[in-house]
Amino acid sequence: MNIKKHIPNLITLINLFCGCVAIVYISQGDFLMAFYMVCLGIFFDFFDGFFARLFKVSSPLGLQLDSLADMVTSGVVPGYVMYSLFLKSANPHDVVGSVYIPFLGFIITLGACYRLANFNIDTRQTDSFIGLPTPANALFVLSLPLVIEFSNSLMMFEVLSNFWVLLVITLCSAYVMNAEIPLFALKIKKFTLKDNVLQIVFLIISILMVILLQYIAIPLIIIFYVLLSIINNLFLKK
């Protein structure tokens, strides 16, 4: 029995387990622990591919298993978080709205599902991404309740508790994951300053934002990544 070929799949299943635990924490209203579990799941999601390449045991099964695990950790979980945010923003006196409107949050789950299925058959996304990866989108969505909880800003609370703001975020989230927007690769392949200026600038600014803004920095970093990629694409066309 070749144990090596099962190690990447085991790591993928740990990613899935982290997503399942995150769902439990969300149901209990503990968004911070849910965020940490998703971060842990994304960590394992990175290393399953790493070990598959290291042990040279990449397989079609591993590819499908990876997408199924991501569907939970980076698809169902952020959808459930958005459902919870919609639920909190709903008018308790509006019985119909408070019951049915929160389900709009799962539009994010549908968008993630479509992206993951498309990613498996898109040969263009081997070294970089087209559209926002589901883990990045999951971090963006899961950071929103943390911004509300830890920012101590009444304005931030009012903005992220507004139905229309949440609806726009939900629709943009599902769209950006599937949009034909090339995003620059974060992996460093050539160890030269010239070939990695974009990555270094992004990394430095991201670190500074985390130090200065803490949890608020997370959604801003994701937005910055997309905008920086769009600007970079415009320069490449010239």
Topology, please?
Elements: H1 7-27, H2 31-54, H3 60-89, H4 95-100, H5 107-121, E1 129-130, H6 134-150, H7 154-159, H8 163-178, E2 182-183, H9 197-213, H10 217-237
Antiparallel strand pairs: 1-2
Helix pairs in contact: 1-2, 1-3, 2-3, 2-6, 3-5, 3-6, 3-8, 5-8, 6-10, 9-10
Radius of gyration: 19 Å
Q: Output mean pLDDT.
A: 87
Sequence of secondary-structure elements: HHHHHEHHHEHH
Say how many strands there are.
Answer: 2
Helix content: over 70%
By secondary-structure content and strand pairing, the structural class works out as mainly alpha
Portion in beta strands: under 5%
Describe the structure.
Helix 2 packs antiparallel against helix 3 (60-89) and helix 5 (107-121) runs parallel beside helix 8. Helix content is 73%, strand content 2%. The longest helix has 30 residues, at 60-89. It has 238 residues and is mostly helical. The chain has helices at residues 7-27, 31-54, 60-89, 95-100, 107-121, 134-150, 154-159, 163-178, 197-213, 217-237, and strands at residues 129-130, 182-183. It has a two-stranded antiparallel ribbon with strand order 1-2. The radius of gyration is 19 Å and the shape is globular. The protein has 10 helices and 2 strands; from the N terminus they run αααααβαααβαα.
